[in-house]
Amino acid sequence: MAGTIAARLAELGIDLPKLPAPAGAYVPYTISGKMLFISGQIPMRDGALSHTGKVGSDLSVEDGYACARVCALNILAQAAAACGGDLDKVARCLKLGGFVNCGPDFNDHPKVINGASELMLQVFGDNGKHARFAVGAPSLPLGSAVEVEAIFELL
């Protein structure tokens, strides 16, 4: 049924952000067969980073969670662009990969990346269940607190 995901986004009060421009020599997504690969998304909102710094020292785990959610909103915006604006063409979310800008003693990476994972579940229901990794990094592009990438299966 066309518009099911759009209706769910509206029900959740979610407006997808404008697409951020790539920050390097890459494309925001590629499609191979029924696989959609979304490049790592940082928390860009209206042309600016919403969260910078290290989670665990500059930012709380809750801030990191919110940051991962912004990254996931950008993932959904990229997926919509790849699908001609129709997220109903997404069969399911297969995998998310999350990088958390943090110090060596930080170990709550999964709690941070849950911000992205839980959004996929809210938007896609059971089709939002996915495999995942959540790891720490000593730095991320532009000082971002979090970066998240995704792989989707298309119909």
Automatic annotation (TrEMBL):
CDD domains: YjgF_YER057c_UK114_like_1. It comes from the Bacteria. Pfam families: YjgF_endoribonc (PF14588). SUPFAM superfamilies: YjgF-like (SSF55298). Residues 7-149 form the Endoribonuclease L-PSP/chorismate mutase-like domain. PANTHER family: ENDORIBONUCLEASE L-PSP_CHORISMATE MUTASE-LIKE DOMAIN-CONTAINING PROTEIN, ENDORIBONUCLEASE-RELATED. This is Endoribonuclease L-PSP/chorismate mutase-like domain-containing protein.
